[in-house]
Amino acid sequence: MAKILLAEDEEVLRMLVVDTLEDEGHDIDEACDGEEAIEMIKQNDYDLILLDYMMPIYTGLEVIQHVRNMPDKKHVKIMMLSAKSQQVDKERVLAAGADYFMAKPYSPLELVERIEAILHGEDA
């Protein structure tokens, strides 16, 4: 079981992902904007952070920058989930410090498979 933070401002999508990952046995924390995500990251240790690209207050890119500047959090794996799926967007996300990128829309099964690969150290 992994400790995962999901930062997603769309409530329905957040609920779907949380339900799917909890069914797989993971412990999920939820944030509805970038500011809440940063506060939760400061207070908790996560195995994986799932970030929406476009969120209120701080974007997913800004959250990544905050995390990568936290000395005790640099090791945390980060996956960006985004409808901005052009190659330039993907490159921007990875250059900012994300480990993985997944374009929306995605199927819950596809997300679970990618997360399991990440948590088991496989190339997702």
TrEMBL record:
One GO BP annotation of this record: phosphorelay signal transduction system
The protein, known as: Response regulator receiver domain-containing protein
InterPro entries: Bact_response_regulator (IPR050595), CheY-like_superfamily (IPR011006), Sig_transdc_resp-reg_receiver (IPR001789)
Provenance organism: Anoxybacillus pushchinoensis
Pfam families noted in UniProt: Response_reg
Domain Response regulatory: from-to ranges: 3-119
KW Phosphoprotein (keyword) present: yes
Modified residues (4-aspartylphosphate): D52
